[in-house]
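User: Show me a protein chain along with its predicted structure.
Assistant: Here is one chain, sequence first, then structure tokens.
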Amino acid sequence: MIGVAWSSASLDARAEEATLALARTDDPIVVDGELSDAAWKSATVLDAFYETSPGDNVTPKVQTKAYLTYDNRYFYIGLECDDPNPA
């Protein structure tokens, strides 16, 4: 695993630091829009998203998940976006 650190300025201009541990994969990933490859099963999952419009940091009405992993060559991001009315 590797750690990724970032900071974001809060409203009172103080910075908060967070660390995210990313799972490394040895399984191949085919970039095809599918999240069925074995590598996605062990990927780090982010599922706490917030909307800033129309609300202010409110929980979205539909769920989104981001899957993060990496191998010797690439950093991969897979997104699962649930939308009951994609039209």
